[in-house]
Each structure stands twice: as structure tokens, then as C-alpha cells.
């Protein structure tokens, strides 16, 4: 798979095959490639915690307990209100593919809860950076993540970056031993996508380049 193919093939997978583990050698290779991502003054600000097996199971149990005790408020993922229409548009496509009507509050909530189950992925990840880093360094973490996603895609491995995981930082720190000096940015699911899950096969549309890029030549 070439770079163009990997970019076009990458999807945010929302259901994985739980009984199909990711070979460690493939994961190690993808991570090694991601380490080649650029960063400010080569600071390499990313820190990733990956849980599998029983550690993953305990993490999921703890997250679900926290969600049950303290459900997140709608819009708590931090998206500015002016961009809410983009959330609605993508949500309509995703929930529609899952056969969940907008009026089906229970069905929508059950689908959201799968976020804290890492969509049954065998590898559950949490992405962090040192608290003394700033926005420019967060850009470096983003480039690391994108490189990792593409390296996984090239190897036939699915993934999903999840903001909702970071809503429960205390649980993550307790379960994974994440020190206070690290800022928790997001979660990440890694595994083999379930090909029978309709929402995994969506091609979410993107805006035209002209809406986001300005060329200046004089």
C-alpha cells in the first residue's frame, strides 16, 4: 500500500474484532515509524500508554463504572458551538449507518458508551504529553498520531482516536500509572476493524481544499 492509498483507506473504526489480537511486531514497527514524525526542536513530546489483556479489561471496567456514576454532559468533548453543525453531520452519517434514529436516545447513548469500551479493540491506548509543553508541541503529538494511524493502516490494522476517553483522567492515571506531569490528550483504539459493522465502511466527506487553504502570490 502506497502513501496515497493509506491516506484514503484510513478510517475511524468504531467496532473491532475483540478476539483477533494485533501482533506485537506489527505494532512495534508502526510505532517505530511514528517516532519519525517531526516535532519542535526534536523534543518528541508524545507519550503513549498501551493496555492489552487483563490490564485493558480492568481499564474498561473502571471507565464504565465512572461513566455510570458520572455521565458526561452533552458537548463535553470541547467542540466550540460554532462548529456543532459538523458534529451533527458526521453523527447523522455514523448513527444512520448503525440504524439508530435521531429520536432513539437510548440507542445513541448505548453507541456512545462503546467509546469507553474502546469499541472492543484489543489494544487500548492513551496519548499524553508533558504538562510544560504548549500548543506547538501538541502539533508534534498530532503528527506522531497521524503517522502512527497511517503506518497501522498500511499493515491492515484499524484505529480510532477518541477524545471521550480523556474525560476521565483520574481513572486513566490510576489504572495505567500515568504521572501527574503528563497531560492526557486523548484515547486510541487499535485492532482489526469488524468488516460487518456498517459504520466502519463509511467514507465521511471532507470540505473542499479552498475552504481551508489560502494561496497568496502577490
Structure, explained:
It is a single chain. The N and C termini lie far apart (39 Å). The chain has one domain: NADH Oxidase (3-Layer(aba) Sandwich). The protein has 218 residues and is of the alpha+beta class. The mean pLDDT is 92. The protein has a four-stranded antiparallel sheet with strand order 1-2-4-3, with helices on both faces. Helix content is 39%, strand content 13%. It has helices at residues 3-9, 24-34, 53-69, 84-97, 105-113, 135-154, 169-176; strands at residues 46-51, 123-130, 158-162, 182-191. The chain is globular and about 55 Å long. It contains seven helices and four strands, in the order H-H-E-H-H-H-E-H-E-H-E. The longest helix is centred in the middle third of the chain and has 20 residues, at 135-154.
Task: Output the CATH class name.
Answer: Alpha Beta
Distance between the termini: 39 Å
Named at the architecture level, the CATH assignment is 3-Layer(aba) Sandwich
Number of domains: 1
Q: Per DSSP, what share of the residues sits in E-state strands of 2 or more residues?
A: 5-15%
Q: How would you spell out the order of helices and strands?
A: HHEHHHEHEHE
Mean pLDDT: 92
The CATH homologous superfamily is named NADH Oxidase
Spatial arrangement of strands, main beta sheet: 1-2-4-3
Radius of gyration: 18 Å
The unreliable regions are: none
The proportion of residues forming helix, as a percent range, comes to: 25-40%
Topology-level CATH name: NADH Oxidase
Task: Supply the number of helical segments.
Answer: 7
What is the 3D shape?
A: globular
Q: What can be said about the biggest beta sheet?
A: 4 strands, antiparallel
Total beta-strand segments: 4
